[in-house]
Amino acid sequence: MATNPAHARQPQGIPTGGQFAPTVRAEPCIGLDTPASPFRDADGTGWTLGGDEYTDTYTSTTDDLEIRVSTDIRAEGATVRVTDRRGVQPAVLLERPAEDIDGAKEAGKAERQQAIRYGYNTLRVGSKALRGTIETVTNHGAGIDSVRTTGHGYLVLSGPRNRDVDPAWCSASGWYERDCAWVIPVLTHHQSLPPAMVATAHTEARRWFPDKYAAVVGADPARYGVERVFAGRNPRP
Fold it and tell me: If you ran DSSP here, which 8-state letter would residue 10 be given?
């Protein structure tokens, strides 16, 4: 009688749990996503680990935008620092504490994505400005810089930043004089700038550009960080 090749017949009297011996089957091959680790996040962001006996430092660099997350066994939480090395001089875009490593990483990655979106300005001391020669450059965030020349000052936006400015008061060059027009880029990108600077910009914009302020900010107050615009009154933050 032919033996069924699918099963191995056991001799009688040997307890095997049944007439036939168990069939050995290979484990299924199932592809799984790489689990998150300190060196590679679930989204694929890679990190290098450094530090000393007290600290751990996780560093991730993409397109000359460096995120550095640090922890210290002598303190709680973590700190995150994002440095932009794409321009003429390195610029710190973000530096603040976080509750934990994961929170610090997420804050750093969000800042880096914004920096990639908005680009950067190439402004060199000694080069020509709209008026005069550049004497100083101060960075305020990705694609936002203050420029000082002899007798003049400007707030300069990168191309992507300037495209966010409402056409009603946009400067085609992306250069806004510091005497009064600086309020326009500040209001447009208020989320990237200090609250005190933004509050002053609202006050000055109502003074220097009352009609345009009412038309632009009044049409969409939330976009400019205020609840509503009242005629003859300061905006409520």
Answer: P
- The answer to whether residue 163 sits within a structural domain is yes
Two tokens at 234? 């300061």
Q: What is the pLDDT of residues 79-101, one digit of tens each?
A: 999 999 998 889 999 999 999 99
Local confidence band at 233 (pLDDT 50, 70, 90 cut-offs)? very low
The model's pTM is: 0.76
Contact 43, 50 (CB under 8 A): no
Instruction: Give me the number of domains the chain comprises.
Output: 2
**Domain contains 83:** yes
**H or E, element range at 140:** strand 134-141
Q: Are residues 141 and 210 in the same domain?
A: yes
Query: Left, alpha or beta for 22 (phi > 0: left; psi -120 to 50: alpha)?
Result: beta
Q: 110 is in which domain, residue-wise? A: 48-118
DSSP tally for the chain: helices H, then strands E: 5, 9
Contact 188, 168 (CB under 8 A): no
> In the structure, what pLDDT confidence band is assigned to residue 24 with cuts at 50, 70 and 90?
very low
Reduced to 3 states, what is the DSSP secondary structure of residue 161?
helix
Inter-CA distances, 193 with 63, 89, 158, 204, Å: 23, 20, 15, 16
Q: How far apart are CA 71 and CA 79, in angstroms?
A: 7
In DSSP terms, which residues pair with 49 in a beta bridge? 58
